[in-house]
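[User] Could I get a sequence and structure tokens?

[Assistant]
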Amino acid sequence: MDFITGGAHNGKLAWALQHYEGEAAVIRQRNAFDKGAASLVIVDQVETMIGERNDAQKFFQKLMDWERDNDVRQLVFIGTDITSGIVPMEAKDRKWRDDVGFQYQQFMKDAEAVYRIWFGIPQQIK
């Protein structure tokens, strides 16, 4: 599993589609995942999933298990960095921001490679 992060509208998905070989199945927000023949799965906008799904961690774990079941499979999570800047005033927004930060820490721990994309330019940080 790899993790890609960076600011909003910085070209994270475009870079991933160019960087990784093969036909990619892209999952965004609540899209269903068809485990069909895809060997490359890119999960985009994970910060949105964390805010919208009560079971986001279980969903992410199922995808990681799917990748581990076959050496040919590649899983890539893409998340916008929302953990910097002004702390939200609303309690629910602060909780979401914290939850995203905790999940990103877990992605960083579990990932084989981590990239930060800055306006289309990659920086490998793990």
